[in-house]
Amino acid sequence: MTSEPVVSLNHVLEGPEDAPVLVLSHSLGATLGMWDDQASVLRERFRLLRYDQRGHGDSPVPSGPYKIEDLGLDVLALLDRLEIEHASFCGLSIGGLVGMWLASEAPGRVERLVLCCTAARFDSDFYDARAHKVRAEGVGSIVDAVLERWFTPEFRATRPETVEWAESMLRGTPTEGYAGCCEVLRDTDMRSRLGEIQAPTLVVAGAEDPATTVDQAEEIHDSIQGARLVVVEGAAHLANIEQPEAVTREILNHLEPVIGEER
């Protein structure tokens, strides 16, 4: 099922031990720190588990290409290691793709699902070219292009310190980890599996996201029975950083039914 052995993911587990578990999964070229704004609020209500994808942050960097099964099985192994039977899952971009895989492959493990700024099928030619470019020229060669997709022009102009922090996170991503995850985006097509997802699902889109468009969010919403779609204004791809209060509020609203169930 997997082309690479499961890796032991770097992670942070915080919040009340008797609270329901929520897993946060980050985008390509980021780390678990991408969720700092949400974590400050969510860890008061949840047992909050953030992790670095394989090839990112402080997680191991096996040689690529990776497959979506690799990323999903890494998470299941982490949950097993922490003795977490089931959790809600919130993922952005490639993290959302992992969420789709988990909710369709291991439905008993996923209580509620939040899919942020993601797609069931990414542009395979684009990410194939990006993997080749990064392996040949390094992550630094695509920084400007990525930041233009991550944030709106207005945000880049008015919040340079946050953009600089995000750039540092991106530049710190290992070359092979970034390229290997590009190949996940190149090869994965979850469209035929969306109808299998039973977990109550919230789909969040950035109104100005050029990387995963509102149309792609609508495709996910239309394919998962009972899903709800929220479009966040004034946000590009990293909507959780650009509009943190709005995204945190929507996550909390969606997860409200599980808060208190295990206390």
Topology:
Elements: E1 11-14, E2 21-25, H1 36-42, E3 47-51, H2 68-81, E4 87-92, H3 94-105, E5 110-116, H4 124-137, H5 143-150, H6 153-158, H7 160-171, H8 175-187, E6 201-206, H9 214-223, E7 228-232, H10 239-242, H11 244-255
Parallel strand pairs: 2-3, 2-4, 4-5, 5-6, 6-7
Antiparallel strand pairs: 1-3
Helix pairs in contact: 1-11, 2-3, 4-8
Please provide a written account of the structure.
The protein has 263 residues and is α/β, with parallel strands linked by helices. The protein has a single domain, classed as 3-Layer(aba) Sandwich (Rossmann fold). The chain contains eleven helices and seven strands. A seven-stranded mixed beta sheet has the order 1-3-2-4-5-6-7, sandwiched between helices. Helix 1 packs across helix 11 (244-255) and helix 2 (68-81) packs across helix 3.
